[in-house]
Design goal:
The complex is a heterodimer of chains A (about 260) and B (about 300). By secondary structure, chain A is of the alpha/beta class. Chain A is about 35% helix and about 25% strand. Chain A is built from 8 helices and 10 strands. In chain A, the strands form 2 sheets. A 6-stranded mixed β-sheet of chain A has the order 6-7-8-3-9-10, with helices on both faces. A 4-stranded antiparallel β-sheet of chain A has the order 2-1-4-5, with helices on one face. The radius of gyration of chain B is 27 Å and the shape is globular. The chains are: A alpha/beta (about 260), B mainly alpha (about 300). Chain A: It comes from Bosea vestrisii.
Chain lengths: ~260, ~300
């Protein structure tokens, strides 16, 4: 039995008499512990697909099966790391994570256990030092780290990352990518990441799912990235299979599915 | 004060490139050498900069007023005559010599008590109704037009109805405060609720917060800056309304005092009462703003 199954998902938006088809016949099976990236041009429906998996947007037809059971509402088993971090600005870093931990583990763990679990997750993303700061007092990269800690702290079956590093500068982004790789290696989470960054996709993923341009975006190709882990950014630069994977994605995006409307 | 020290330390560290112990240098000279005088001087400077301009303005107004009202044909008293006639009101706000012969401080307190009751009711009901209107499309469609019409009714127009309904001046005055203050609270709360970012709603959905948890963990804190804007407008309007309402209902409040003084032609008393009302209104506004600032700390910055 597959861990997560996206089964013939279509998504259409109805506005008055006009119907726009955003996603067409998306089917994908993801194994436990896999890191899958979904890549495509902007506006192709990547985020819509992630929201459907998260349950925040309903699929028009088709369904999402998690461990054989249909999921159609949001829940902490599919934690989301949002693109713009979505931390609550009136809560401290600690309280932002605590909100999730207390809600998810309120009945299952004692107060002390929950406290330790919050600190453990903050340490995991190296944010233990800023636990009493508010989101307004820390940098964008730090906010995203806290967002990841909040997601991880829910102990989700799947962690969904919606362009998590899109708003960060290149150096910060590299740091966070390394952190995510370390966490994935240590905890073995199943993760799905939306991205439009080819290098990021190749570096982090076991598989890269490439979407064609919208409207009616389909899965164009799925690329297996057969690079040994742990992966080192610098060593990969000259690695042949890395270059080949990168080339494959670039060719898909810029030769076969050029984004005509762009610029 | 501390900056040159810091600069020296950094400069020293880079030039000599000691093996990474700048903390040895840092804490030495700063701190204790600061005397109380050096701390007080900038504080006094700040107070002077902020207080001097309004004081000059007041002095100029008083001077102009004195000149303008000093003529033999003048119908209003100049400041010097007010001081002569109403000195006891200015210097002794809390004297007590019988049921109607009391200091303006006491009268203000009575008025404030009415405002406190009416405004508190308006705040609670206003936030709840505003949440309903902001949260539900159907409540907006049904209630918003009614609110928009009712909020334009002047406070005093409610008074006869409210006197007829309550048959007593005290609850009538409180009702007028309530009905005056509630509209800005409702409208601003509704706007605040509507402006809760979708991101926060998504977070709540992923966490499966229930309605009550969503209300006090996400809605209220997120809408707090808007709510406090509404409360601030509301408290200002209440203070405007109480004076007018008390003129008509009588009793001990500051509003009735003005009416009473007018009937016995004590213009100086009226002017002193106006100053009291203005100062208290200003303080009320600042108080709500201060509470809002403390409660919503961090909310505005994202």
């Amino acid at each position: 039995m597959s861990y997560l199954k996206i089964d013939h998902v279509d998504k259409r938006f109805q506005r008055g008499a006009a119907t726009t088809e955003v996603l067409k016949d998306i089917s994908l099976v993801i194994d436990k512990g896999e890191f899958v990236s979904i890549i495509g041009h902007s506006g192709c429906g990547k985020s819509t697909l992630l929201n459907i998996i998260a349950g925040l947007t309903p699929a028009t037809t088709g369904c999402i099966l998690l461990e054989g059971k249909e999921v159609n509402a949001p829940g902490p088993d599919r934690a989301v790391v949002f693109q713009n971090h979505s931390l609550l600005p009136w809560l401290t870093v600690y309280d932002n994570v605590a909100l999730a931990v207390n809600k998810v583990f309120g009945g299952k763990k004692s107060k002390a256990e929950r406290h330790d679990w919050i600190l453990h997750n903050l340490d995991l993303v190296q944010m233990g030092h800023a636990r009493d700061k508010r989101p307004g007092e820390i940098s964008g990269g730090m906010k995203q780290r806290v967002g990841i800690a909040r997601g991880l702290a829910m102990e989700p079956k799947i962690l969904l990352l919606d362009e998590p590093f899109g708003a960060l500068d290149a150096l910060t982004r590299a740091h966070l990518q390394d952190s995510v790789m370390q966490i994935h290696a240590a905890l073995g989470n199943t993760m799905i990441m939306i991205t439009h960054d080819v290098d990021e996709a190749v570096l982090l993923s076991d598989r890269i799912v490439m979407l064609t341009n919208g409207p009616s975006a389909r899965i164009g190709e799925v690329l297996d990235v057969r690079l040994a882990r742990p992966r080192k950014r610098l060593e990969l630069v000259t690695d042949r299979s890395y270059i080949a994977a990168r080339e494959a994605v670039l060719k898909f995006l810029y030769e076969r599915h050029r984004f005509v409307e762009a610029a | 004060m501390g900056q040159p020290v810091l600069k020296d330390a950094i400069a020293g560290a880079t030039v000599v490139s000691l093996p990474g112990k700048p903390s040895d240098v840092l804490p030495l000279p700063a701190g204790p050498s600061k005397s109380i005088a050096t701390r007080l001087v900038p504080l006094a400077k700040g107070a002077l900069v902020n207080l001097l301009p309004p004081l000059i303005t007041i002095a100029l107004i008083l001077l102009f007023w004195q000149i303008a009202a000093s003529g033999p044909q003048s119908s209003l008293p100049p400041p010097t005559r007010i001081w002569e006639e109403a000195k006891d009101l200015i210097t002794e706000p809390f004297y007590w010599a019988g049921s109607q012969d009391i200091g303006l401080g006491w009268r203000i307190l009575v008025s404030l008590q009415r405002v406190a009751i009416g405004f508190s009711l308006a705040a609670v009901v206003g936030v709840l109704l505003g949440t309903l209107v902001g949260q539900s499309v159907w409540a907006t469609r049904g209630l918003d037009p009614v609110f928009q019409v009712l909020r334009t009714v002047p406070p005093l127009a409610w008074l006869p109805l409210s006197l007829a309904a309550f048959r007593d001046s005290q609850p009538s005055a409180i009702f007028v405060i309530f009905i005056t203050a509630i509209w800005p609270v409702i409208i601003n709360t509704a706007v605040g609720i509507r402006n809760i970012p979708q991101d926060y709603r998504n977070v709540a959905q992923v966490l499966r917060l229930n309605q009550i948890e969503f209300f006090y963990k996400i809605m209220v804190p997120s809408a707090a800056p808007y709510i406090f804007t509404g409360l601030r407008i509301g408290v200002g309007l209440s203070w405007l309304a109480i004076v007018a309402a008390e003129m008509l209902t009588g009793g001990v409040g500051i509003g009735f005092f003005i009416w009473d003084a007018w009937n016995s032609s004590r213009l100086s008393d009226i002017i002193v009462a106006l100053v009291y009302i203005g100062v208290v209104g200003f303080l009320l506004d600042r108080l709500v703003a201060l509470i809002g600032h403390v409660v919503t700390r961090g909310t505005a910055t994202n």
